[in-house]
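Weekend entry, working from home. Most of the wet-lab plans are on hold until the incubator is repaired, so I used the time to fold the two sequences that have been sitting in the queue since the last round of cloning. Logging both here for the record. First:
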Amino acid sequence: MKSTLSLFCPGGLPLPEAVTIYWKGEPIEAFEGQSVAAAILNSGVAEFREDHAGHSRGPICGMGSCMECRATVDGVPYLRTCLVPVTSGMRVEPADGT
């Protein structure tokens, strides 16, 4: 697959492999090993879930403290996507109402 992603790696470091993951069933191009939250944000999505009151929520801290990036990853609910590395073919769904 021809990648539309760009990444600068100084000093001739090898680039991570571009892979596809699925957010709400839609393909997203990502880099192997980057956080799932970063991949979703890079695709233009800012709303990861809704809280109990129906308000949109998305990542704030990027390091696992705020819990706002929770989602279901490959069937495992309530994972903090900023701490989960991308692997090819992952399926990610919002954790609505949490």
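Second, folded right after the first finished:
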Amino acid sequence: SPFCGTTIAVTGILAGVATLAMAGGASSGGRWAKLPTAMIGGMLAVLFGQPIGRMAQKHITTSPHVARVRIDSVSEKGWGPFKGYWVATSQG
């Protein structure tokens, strides 16, 4: 999911690193002269963040071994206009 925490975290890290990398170095026009390049770096990182985040989710943060997993409870969490769900599981 594009709203998975792993995807959001990977995208944020990539965007931050890309923006810093693109904004670094000397420029004759000062800080504002680097802004377009930094923005392009950030946008490219966001573009590639979702597929890279999905790969990280598939290979790092989730497990396909769910044969003995039991759902204990599902609770709704709200943060202002945002809604999410917490699913508590255990090995059964």
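Plan for Monday: verify the second prediction. Helices lie at 5-23, 35-61.
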